[in-house]
Design brief:
By secondary structure, this protein is of the alpha/beta class. The chain contains 7 helices and 5 strands, in the order βαβααβααβαβα. Strands 2-3-1-4-5 form a 5-stranded parallel β-sheet. It is globular, with a radius of gyration of 15 Å. The chain starts with 5 loop residues before the first strand and ends with a helix. The relative contact order is 0.23. InterPro entries: NadR/Ttd14_AAA_dom, P-loop_NTPase. It comes from Parabacteroides johnsonii DSM 18315. This is NadR/Ttd14 AAA domain-containing protein.
Length: about 180
């Protein structure tokens, strides 16, 4: 299943993806928020262990399942839709923290295809902050950017690094890259 109207925002944590996604949503574009934060909130609320600091294998499995559901739920959308992370982010995460990349992960990455252009948000130390759900140290955030770039390119995507601009300038830059204003 492929949808050329689906654009991925990926990169390390705290690099401004969600802020730009929100701006695009406010401009009227369809957006799909990152699944990781919802999983973390739900697991904390229900005292579950599928957390990046506890049961990482289960956490990755939930990220994959939720990402596939997000893709399937939006499959009918004929206009640009921006995703804060995609299915391949789960594989990048698994490789980063050295947990098994399952056959199911590989199959999902091949079966569910987004637009070939992936917007890669570089690590930006000046805006990086930690919070209750984002606990990565600066160095892990940097490594995440590299791991995700490598993973998307491995699956045949073209990563384009989003310049370090204000959020509104980043949103306009992205729209210019896909010829939408």
């Amino acid at each position: 299943m492929e949808n050329a109207n689906f654009y991925i925002f990926t990169g390390g944590p705290g690099s401004g993806k969600s802020t730009v996604l929100d701006l695009l949503g406010n401009m009227g574009y369809r957006i799909v928020r990152e699944v990781a934060r919802d999983i973390i909130r739900n697991q904390v609320k229900t005292r579950g262990d599928a957390l990046p600091w506890d049961n990482t294998v289960r956490y990755a499995r939930l990220m994959l399942l939720r990402s596939v559901v997000d893709f399937e739920e939006m499959a009918h959308v004929p206009t640009p839709c921006f995703f804060d992370r995609g299915i391949i982010d789960t594989l990048g995460y698994a490789r980063l923290i050295d947990i098994p990349v399952t056959t199911c992960m590989e199959e999902a990455a091949r079966a569910y295809r987004y637009n070939r252009t992936v917007f890669l948000f570089p690590f930006w130390e000046e805006i990086y902050t930690r919070d209750a759900e984002r606990k990565q140290e600066v160095e892990e955030a940097r490594r995440t950017f590299i791991a995700l770039k490598k993973e998307y390119e491995h699956f045949g995507y073209q990563t384009i690094e989003v310049p370090l601009l204000s959020p509104s300038e980043r949103a306009e830059w992205i729209l210019g890259q896909i010829s939408i204003r």
